[in-house]
Write a structure and sequence with these properties.
mainly alpha; 2 domains; 4 helices; 0% strand; elongated
Amino acid sequence: MAGTKAGALKAKQAILARNPNHYKEIGMKGGRNSTTGGLAANRDLARLAGAKGGTISRRRRKGETDEEYQERTKAIKNGTKV
């Protein structure tokens, strides 16, 4: 690793002298390894995760009885609308 800007430039030139496509290959590896799964690809999963997060942070709504709370958390875990 270079300690100065001049050293970084020299290292970059040396790497490109050995392999002109070095940085392109690194970028290609990152692109191949990436996936667009998870919450970005699944709106229902994102909605469910947000609802669970809100429930955990809030715990119980003001004036909510034990039965109402249990029913609401059960509905959130099952993924149904409350």
